[in-house]
Amino acid sequence: MVYEYYFYVPDSTPVEILKKKGWAVGECVYVSRNVFDEPEEPEE
Question: Which superkingdom (predicted)?
Answer without folding.
Answer: Bacteria
